[in-house]
Design brief:
By secondary structure, the chain is an alpha/beta fold. It contains 14 helices and 15 strands. Helix content is 44%, strand content 14%.
Amino acid sequence: MEKRLLFFASDYEIGLTQANTEVVTALWQSGKVDMLCVSSEKEQEPGLHRKLDEAGVRKVIVEGLDAHDHFRDKATALRDIIRQHAISHVNVQNNWQLALAAYVKYKYAHRVKIIYTIHGYRHNSPLKAMLAIGMIGMALLLFADRVLSMSSYVSRRFWFLGYKTDIVFYLMNKPQYAKTTNCITGSPLRLVFPAQFRQGKNQHILISAVKQYVDQTHDLTIRLYLPGAGPRLNAMKALARQLGVEQQVVFPGKLNLDGVFTLYEESNIALCASNVETYGRCIAEPFMLGRCVVTHKTGVALDIIRDGKNGVFFRTDKDLVALLTDFHAHPEKVEAMANQAFVDRQVFSTENVLRSYLSVINKV
């Protein structure tokens, strides 16, 4: 049977996602896979459906596809798409889509191969994480022919699926990544951590580290930028005032992607203090842009960071203070690691990511 891929490009309450739009467009333009994408009528941001149309991507719109209702009607629509287009492989992005694809496969005896992409799970609560891994894992054991993981960190959580799991990174091909030279200076220290202000993101560790650093070095030129919004934002602002570092800790608010990229370019060190990242765009994005990434051992960091070579791992605020103090005395270390990251970023190139993805299609 000729291989023909049906790619689910939308997600619950979002519609057509920006990330999936990039993947679908790159796959289509590669010409290496016969494919069709399916999406709801919604889109994460205006213009994504138009972008697919302008690229000539074949797509089918199923109204309300990602709403968790009218299951049989949507399963029937999916069955018709699979039959009409002779689909051999289906790439789903969430449990609802998995249920639809599995229902069609087994009720109508379609010999389609189901590929499931793990984007995340409930991980801030250990109990919820354990339950989510168990439930998702059981469904994947039963119904998925192949599983895509965005990082080895996630793969280890689903270790029992290792025999049918492949690591495929997010596609990162925005125009900002196309730069051919990396301009960076190691001094003064400019730190950035874009994240929601919620449990598990640990901005308080970074603010505390800045306070300790200033006390030890008396360097008042350091800046820590914490863009984002969330329920803990006001508490973090209050902490910065309480510690007397409100001049050194800057809260730019919630920024769009262009604003975040601008902050990355104006900084020399990108931080990740999260307890858990299933992938961690706050790790991958600055790595792609040639910044020095200082991060907890989580998400994609375990796949790309060579400690002390193209980035650094840390565990506690004391660790971070020691690193910042060393960087203050030796800014050339920041520059060297940032420039090495700029070289090593090829791991995220469109060519490498598509090669990994297409190898999965060929396995099943």
